[in-house]
Structures are given as structure tokens and as C-alpha cells.
């Protein structure tokens, strides 16, 4: 009771003093309203800064012109042969990457220029093209100001759909052939219903493989793929094949290897390492193919997983599985 009374007294005193202080400060502000000499000087300075126009970087350095030569072909005008179109781009007006330059050309010079792009940060793998003779991703390749022109072609030895857009149908068909997903024969009913365990050591075997974004820069830099692309799977797909073969959670490695054991699928690789040199993600498909060849030849064997995930017994928790299935 005492505490309640004293708290209410305290609160009312606090508010009355607080209000009194606010009133005092308002009165003092009104009293101070006449500007002093200092106020006038500060106001004059602020007005001067606002009026001052900072010269733009562009005006300081002038335009940074770069010649860009781009491969053009339009299937709607089949009688016009492919040609190189030249643009002069002011690098001050666009971003720093080749993809920015192409986007600028499309916006400011020629809206018919066609190319693929999506993530603009080296993740989706769709902006692969040949830039100054190197297969790479346009979105993570910096433009270097140079007297030499920046020359951009679609990925070499690929059929062209239009301008810088290569036809990826064969490449993706081959990727589909290697079954790029987890296979655990006999466990189909339980996939997605529980965790499949993997030790850190087994997980580390996937490093340098899982980062592949299927941009196909390596595949279209591989000479055997240029000549035998319909039979030889090429470095990107083989790197993915190896990734699934050595995954400790996958139980179909024998079946996967059997599919690759023919004259063309793997053995057309001559270990030239063009693929490794060009990979924009810094991966080593040449090494993955060499490991795959060793597995195929029986020189190495897939290790047993450090942790086995036991088959679930649906009878023990029938209700749980039934509800998840529903
Ligand atoms: S290995 Fe490299 S170059 Fe080849 S598809 Fe994967 S990310 Fe692209
Ligand atoms: S190492 Fe093999 S896959 Fe890579 S570029 Fe050479 S031949 Fe092609
Ligand atoms: S736009 Fe996605 S990798 Fe270049």
C-alpha cells in the first residue's frame, strides 16, 4: 500500500517537474530567437556550400572510350552472314564488368543485341561467352581500358541461337544422362523423409566439385568436345559425374561407372587441361576426369562411407511416415 502511494506521488512529481523544464526550455528558445553574428556567419557558410557545384568525375577526366566488337547473327535474317559489330562505349557511363558494357550497349546503342544473363554475380552460369579469346563469365570479368578492342564472341564451337546466345540443348541433355541426383536403390520410398548422414571428411571430398555452376565454359574450350561433342561428355558433365560417383551418400556408383565405360564418354579426354585453365570458378575438371578414369580402370576404389545411414523401419514410427506422406 505504502509502496503504491509513494510511487504515484513520485510519478506525479516527476511529470510536473518535467513539464516545467520543457516550458522553461521553450521560453528560452523564444528569447534566443534574435540571430547573433555567429548564426549569420554559419548560415552564410551553409548557403555557400549548397551553391557550390562539385565538378563531376566525368568532367574532370573526360570520356573513357573503349572500342567493343561484338559477334552478331540474327536467325530472322538468315541471308545476312554473321558479322562483328563495333561500338564505342564510354566506360564512365557504365559499370565495370563486361556484362555491364553489354547491358549499356543494349540500352543505349542497339536494343536488338541478345545475350543471356541472370544473377550478374557468377552464380547462375548463364552469361558464359568468349571474351578476348577466353571462355569466361561476362558478369565477373572486369573491363580493362585498352587501345585494343574488347572482342566478344559466343562460346566457341556451339551452335548459335542468336548473337551471343549458344545452344545448350546437347550440353544439358548430356548432363541429364548422368543422373545428377542422389540415388539410393531400394530407399525410394524414404527419400526426403530423413537426413542422410555424412562425416566432415566425406563431405570434404566434394570440395572443388559442388561449386560447379554448369556454365559450360570448360566444355566449349575442350578440343575433343569440339570434334566429338555428340559422343564425348566433356569436362563439365564429367566433373558432375565424378561428383555423384564419390558422394558418400550415393549408393549407385557401380551403375554410374558402368554407364561411362565405353570408348567415347570419358576416354576422349587427352588431359590437355584447357578446361582447368579456363574455368571461371577456379575448378579443376581435368583432375576430376583423371580420377574418374582411375575408378573406371580399377586403379582406385570408392571408399566406404564413414557414417552409414541405416534403412528406416517404417513399422516403428508408422504414423510419422504416414502423416509426412499425406
Ligand atoms: S567446371 Fe568450371 S567452367 Fe566447367 S561448367 Fe563448372 S564452373 Fe563452368
Ligand atoms: S583435360 Fe580433357 S576435358 Fe579438359 S580440355 Fe583437355 S581434353 Fe578436354
Ligand atoms: S549472370 Fe549469372 S553467372 Fe553471369
From TrEMBL:
Pathway assigned in UniProt: Carbohydrate metabolism; tricarboxylic acid cycle
Residues in 2Fe-2S ferredoxin-type domain copies: 78-158
MF annotations from Gene Ontology: 2 iron, 2 sulfur cluster binding; 3 iron, 4 sulfur cluster binding; 4 iron, 4 sulfur cluster binding; electron transfer activity; metal ion binding; succinate dehydrogenase (quinone) activity
Cofactor: [2Fe-2S] cluster; [3Fe-4S] cluster; [4Fe-4S] cluster
Polar residues bias spans: 314-326
Chain segments carrying region Disordered: 307-326
Pfam families for this protein: Fer2_3, Fer4_8
Record field: transmembrane: none
UniProt keyword list: 2Fe-2S, 3Fe-4S, 4Fe-4S, Electron transport, Iron, Iron-sulfur, Metal-binding, Oxidoreductase, Transport, Tricarboxylic acid cycle, Ubiquinone
Any one biological process term the GO annotation gives: respiratory electron transport chain
PROSITE patterns named in the record: 2FE2S_FER_2 (PS51085), 4FE4S_FER_1 (PS00198)
InterPro entries, alphabetized: 2Fe-2S_ferredoxin-like_sf, 2Fe-2S_ferredoxin-type, 4Fe4S_Fe-S-bd, 4Fe4S_Fe_S_CS, Beta-grasp_dom_sf, Helical_ferredxn, SDH/FRD_Iron-Sulfur, Succ_DH/fum_Rdtase_Fe-S
One term under GO cellular component: mitochondrial membrane
Catalytic activity: a quinone + succinate = fumarate + a quinol
EC number annotated for this UniProt entry: 1.3.5.1
Record keyword Hydrolase present: no
Family indicated by similarity: Belongs to the succinate dehydrogenase/fumarate reductase iron-sulfur protein family.
Stated name of the protein: Succinate dehydrogenase [ubiquinone] iron-sulfur subunit, mitochondrial
Species of the source: Mycetomoellerius zeteki
Amino acid at each position: 500500500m505504502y509502496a503504491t502511494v509513494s510511487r504515484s506521488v513520485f510519478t506525479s512529481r516527476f511529470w510536473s517537474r518535467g513539464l516545467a523544464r520543457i516550458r522553461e526550455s521553450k521560453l528560452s528558445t523564444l528569447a534566443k530567437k534574435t540571430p547573433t553574428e555567429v548564426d549569420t556567419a554559419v548560415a552564410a557558410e551553409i548557403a555557400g556550400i549548397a551553391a557550390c557545384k562539385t565538378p563531376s568525375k566525368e568532367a574532370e577526366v573526360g570520356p573513357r572510350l573503349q572500342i567493343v566488337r561484338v559477334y552478331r547473327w540474327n536467325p530472322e535474317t538468315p541471308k545476312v552472314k554473321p558479322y562483328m559489330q563495333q561500338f564505342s562505349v564510354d566506360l564512365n557511363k557504365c559499370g565495370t564488368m563486361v556484362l555491364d558494357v553489354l547491358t549499356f550497349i543494349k540500352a543505349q546503342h542497339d536494343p536488338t543485341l541478345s545475350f543471356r544473363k541472370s544473377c550478374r554475380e557468377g552464380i547462375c552460369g548463364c552469361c558464359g561467352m568468349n571474351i578476348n579469346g577466353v571462355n569466361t563469365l561476362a558478369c565477373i570479368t572486369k573491363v580493362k581500358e585498352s587501345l585494343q578492342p574488347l572482342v566478344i564472341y559466343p562460346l566457341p564451337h556451339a551452335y548459335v541461337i542468336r548473337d551471343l546466345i549458344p545452344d545448350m540443348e546437347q550440353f544439358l541433355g548430356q548432363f541429364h544422362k548422368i543422373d545428377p541426383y542422389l540415388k539410393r536403390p531400394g530407399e525410394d520410398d524414404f527419400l526426403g523423409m530423413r537426413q542422410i548422414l555424412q562425416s566432415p571428411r566425406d563431405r570434404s571430398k566434394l570440395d572443388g566439385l559442388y561449386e560447379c555452376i554448369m556454365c559450360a565454359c570448360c566444355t566449349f574450350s575442350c578440343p575433343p568436345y569440339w570434334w566429338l561433342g555428340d559422343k564425348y561428355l566433356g569436362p563439365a558433365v564429367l566433373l558432375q559425374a565424378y561428383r555423384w560417383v564419390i558422394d558418400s551418400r550415393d549408393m549407385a556408383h557401380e551403375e554410374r561407372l558402368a554407364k561411362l565405360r565405353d570408348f567415347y564418354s570419358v576416354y576422349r579426354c587427352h588431359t590437355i587441361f584447357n578446361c582447368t585453365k579456363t574455368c571461371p570458378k577456379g575448378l579443376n575438371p581435368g583432375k576430376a576426369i583423371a580420377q574418374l578414369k582411375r575408378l573406371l580402370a580399377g586403379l582406385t576404389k570408392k571408399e566406404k562411407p564413414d557414417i552409414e545411414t541405416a534403412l528406416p523401419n517404417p513399422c516403428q514410427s508408422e504414423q510419422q511416415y504416414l502423416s509426412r506422406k499425406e
